[in-house]
Each structure stands twice: as structure tokens, then as C-alpha cells.
Amino acid sequence: MKHYFLLLLLIGCIASGQAESGWKAHWINTERCQSKTNTWLAFRKIVHIDKVPQTLTARIAADSKYWLWINGRLVVFEGGLKRGPSPYDTYYDPVEIAPYLQNGENTIAVLVWHFGKSGFSHVNSGLAALLFEAIAPGVEIVSDKSWQCTVYDAYQDTEAPYPNYRLPESNIRFDARMEMSGWNQPGYTGKMPNAEIISSVGVAPLGKLVERPVPLWKDYGLKPYVSVRRSSAGDTLYCRLPYNSQVTPYLKVEAPAGKVIHIRTDNYEGGSQYNVRAEYVTRDGVQEYESLGWMNGHEMQYILPEGVKVLDVKFRETGYDTEFTGSFSCNDPFMNELWKRSARTLYITMRDSYMDCPDRERAQWWGDEVNELGEAFYALSPSSHKLALKGIYELMNWQREDGVIFAPAPAGNWRKELPLQMLASVGWYGFYTQYYYSGDSSFVAGIYDRMHHYLHEVWQVDKSGLVIERDGDWSWGDWGENIDMGVLVNCWYYLALKAEKAFALQLGKTADADEIGRMMYSIGKCFDTKFWTGSAYRSPGYKGETDDRAQAMAVVSGLASADKYPALVKVLKKECHASPYMEKYVLEALFQMNEPAFALERMKQRYAKMMDYPEYTTLFEGWGIGPDGFGGGTINHAWSGGPLTLLSQKVCGIEPTSPGFRSFKVCPQMGTLTEASATVDTHFGKIEVSLKRKGKKIQATLSVPEGTTAEVIWPDGSRKNFDPGRHQAKHVGLLNETEYFNKMYKDNATLLKIK
User: Fold this and answer.
1) Which of 9, 370, 573, 590 is the most buried (most CB within 10 A)?
2) Domain membership of residue 718 as a residue range
3) Is residue 558 part of a domain?
């Protein structure tokens, strides 16, 4: 296997050292460009086209971001993805440009922002450059020496404080006294030198080009703020956004030259760190400016010096191109608001990748992503599925030579493994959920061998078959205290094997599947012997309070048999140690143990403090702010959105029973709720479920999309199948909790484990 990784490394080196065929364009910049941190470059090209083709796809790449205008029209607002399909390579965007072209003369203008430093979400190539290629019969537009290019000196660095080291982005200072007015418009008469060819496609440092796997950002356009108020001193504008969002700020002012306007959001110090901000230095007269580096928050703040008259302020929201097509509602307003905030938090943590937070790090931590990708299936349209798929490839392409996988990746200044996060990533809730819920298995063959290497050569088991706990580079199981790592690691490893076995069978690797099955059997056989105390699961030598996370993971992994549920419920009614990240699994375990009423009660208790901030539309990293925030305490951490998944998946009971929801079940667990409804958008169309309960009676209305089938499973275990269409179903004889438990979990005990 060592030779396998050496081969991969060799292939990567060869790919980065030899020009890639099929490209006529070259990487270009200008002689003045030294590719320093926070470099901005302006490119222009005049192109004559006799007849515009019906379609013309431009392939555009930059390190790191670009903005494109054609004939004065904005075509792409922030193109490019942060580098890192692998440690060596770069993404390119396919952009349809034919609608923006005209017969005769055309002006193409591109602004490039070179981060020039690595971070937790980007690996710096060290080369500020643009690549542009659009070829069709009679048309050839390729980046070469015929383009014009100059360093755009109006874009500058701010003084300290700078963004924290996790961010590859810099603060943006724009000095309007040095603005190249009209440079991106037809008819520009200013002087710009010709570009220089600095590299061919396929060679280091920019490497191979990989097509962008996610849509270009949705641009919502410039909009007015919800409200604008001045500070009592009159020197600051506080501009309320409609919700926590990814925005670029705009202003129109009248001012003398040389006044400095400071621009930031209320999340400037989100997560106890300095994040990104902007500065605008005025020229004389009336002027407009939009700072192009996105920020996030609930409020934009413009800090104004004396002598500046504000004529207008606006914002532009951009974000991942998907829709909020999922929904949930019930007769409890708290749960409705919790679902809504979960969805908003999910969306603000989506862009180049799934992020832990959009301010402090913007990093693809996979413990977070496992929760996020699950939420997306219940909240968003299917276009969202591509983001997790991108993350899967990145995670495995960044695998270290020693077989270890780590997150966040891509990253230029991090290579450390968090073992439990990695097990969660490749396992049942990560890779397998992405496959099963989307129906897309295209990634499985490409990542299987690397996944197998990680699980069976990096990880080891003892003579009993239980996994040997590893510290990795950061032995992290969750924020908070009383973390029983011994139990947790066996549960996460078991779930990773469960996913791997399913993939092995899918690929026809029966020998692998058999061996994995034997390993799972050994863990299942020895798990209780080592960890069960008679009242709870606990590792030998563990001295803390009984870990609620450990009990929950024993349940959701299937390692805890149903006869232990009553004891485990007692533990979960007493112990509350999990952070919002792991609380999702605690609540899921309660639903699995047929405790929907208590699951909803605990959900409300745990999230009450977080929800007691009406000014926030997103969920926090920890249960509160400041000392209760954990890990720095951001107010926008999508790992906290587990209730979104559970309210749709368990309360309304919507879960796939075959890949991609081609068949699905509706198995409601309403607890004390009397009404609940949910919508789930799939590739086949929308699943809609509406439930009403009165006494022992439940009435369900459901819409089954074409090409799918549904099965309604009532609390007493009775079932009814439905073909495509809109249906009503009634159930009149609810069992009590004891009867339900006995029937559902004794009859279906074999479903809890893979034998």
C-alpha cells in the first residue's frame, strides 16, 4: 500500500510538471505583478466577432477570485473557487458568454483578486494569474500576450488588525483617488500594458485544471437595508440586514478627497477573532463603491469621518445557488422557529464548501459537514447535493501519504487529523448518507480504496475485535466535558464499517464485505462485555460523569440492543453534556427508542437559551454566547441544526427506503404535537406530508412524486403502500408506549444491526 501512495504522489508531480493538453490559453499577469498577498489585477481584451455563435462557453480560472464584465455588463460576480481539488490543482469555471456578446467589437474585462496566502480553506499557489479560453467555429478568445493587464493600485492593504490566520482573505482597502474609472467598460482610453505569459496549463504551481463541480453563486442584486440608524454621535450607520447573510456592502457618498470610511459587520469579531473588514478612501465629489469581498452578519456598520455625506447605502447578497424548497411546520411555534433558524444557518455556511462558520474560519471541517449535508436533504433543492460531493472528493484527494485523512481540506496551513471526525465523515452519516439520500453513487468507486486504507491500515483492532483508540493529531470528540472517548470511537468506527460494507457490496467486493462483516460481528459481540455497566455504557478507566453522547451513539450505531433502551432513556433524562454538534445524535437516539415526547422536550430545553435571542436568525456554536459558546463561540454554526433533520425525518417520519427517495417511508413520531407537516424536495419531485392527531386518531395527507412509492407505517406497526399521487390515510388505534415498544423493537430488532 505504501507503493500505492508513492505512485499517487508521482502521478501528481508529473501532472504538475507537464503541460496539460487540450488548452490553447495560457496563464497571464503583468510584469509588475509580484504575486504578493492581496494583489488585485485588471485585465482587458478587445475581441472582434463577425457572427456571435448560439453558444460559447468560456473556461475561466484564477488564483483566487475574479469578476467578469462583457461589453460593460456584469456577467460573473465573484467567480472561481478556492484552490484545492487536490493539494496541487486549481478549479476552473465554465461560463456561457454568448448572450453577452455582439457582432463586431466586444470588450472583455476581468478583475482578479489573488489572496496570496493560505488558510483553512485555500492553498496558495503563489502566482496571481488569469486563464481565459472560449473557442467556437470562427471565434477564439484565449488569454495570451494580446490581453492588457495592470496591477490595480487602488486596492490596498489595511493596517492592523488583520483577519485571523485561518482566513486566506485579507481586508480590502480601496483608495478611490487611484480609481481607474471605466476600465471595465467599452471605450476606455486609459493606458494598460500588455500581459505576460507566466505559465502553461497543467504545470506547477497552478497544476491541473478541474471543472467547477458546483453552480456559480446566486446574485440577489443590490437591495436596500431593512433599516438604517445613526449612532448618537452621528459617526456610524447601523444597517440592519433581513437575516444573517453573505453580503458585499455598497455606498454612495459626497465627500472631499482622502476621507477613510470603515466598513464591517456585527460579526467582525465573531468567534472571538478578528475577521474581514473593509476601508474606502474617498476621492473628491459624489462617488459610489461596492467592496467585493463578502462578509456576513445581521448588521452592516459604516463608520464615517467628519465631512462625508451619505447619499445611499445598500447591500448585495450572494450565496450558493439553491432554493429553500424543504419546509416544516407544526402547532408549536418554538419548533417552527428552530427549524427556520437551522435552515438559515445551513445556508450561510455554504459557499466554496460547507463551512463550520462564515466568519472565523470558513473551513470545511467534516464533523460539521456530516450534520450539514444531512440537513440539506430536508431543507434545500437537489442542487445543494453537489456541495457535499465536492467535499468528499477534496477530503480523499488530500489524504496524506501515511493514509491519514484530515479536515479541514482544502487547507494550506493545516494537516492534522481529528480521528472521530474522520470516522464520522467516511461513515454512515457522512459518505453513506450522501449516497443514499441523493441516489448518486458516482463517487464510491473513486474513493473506496483510500477509504479502505484509512479504516484498515491507519486504524487497528485488538484481539477481541474492538477498535484501538487513537489520539491522532487532535483527540477531539466534541466540545464540552465528560467525553467518553472509548465508547465513542467504537461506535463511530462501527458506523464507518457499516458504510464501507455497503459500498463494498455495491462494487462487487464480496471478500471485503465478508471481512468487514466479521469485524462488525466481533465489535457487536464484545461491545457490551467491555462497556456495559448494567445501567449505562462506560469505558474502563473513564472517571467523568456518564456521557450522554456515548449512550446515544451506542443506540444510533445499533450496538445497543433494545432491552437496554429503558436504562439508556433514564441516563438521557439526567445527563446533558453534549454540545450542539453531538446533541443531534442524542435526540435521534431518543426517537429511535420511541421517546418522541421526551426528545421534543429535551430539544426545547437544550435550545431554549440559544433561541432566547430574537435578534439572531442563526444558531450558535455552543449553547450560548461568551463562556457558553465553546470553541470561540460563533453565532452561526450549522452543526447546531440537527433539529431540522429530526423534525422532518422523525416527527413527520420521512425517510428514504431506497437510494434517492425512489421509495420512502412515512413513519411519524409526533410526541405531544397535534399537527405537523413537512416538504422534502427530491430529484423525482416534492414529497409532502401533513399530519393531524386528535386523541388516538392520526390523519395523514401525502403527495407521492411520479416515479416513487411510499409506505406509511403507523405507531402500531401497521403499514400501507401508496403509488404516485395525492392520498389521505387514517389511523385510529394508537398503542400505548409499552405496546409500541414491544412491537416495533422486538419485531424489528434485526434492523438495528448489520449482521
Assistant:
1) 590
2) 659-736
3) yes
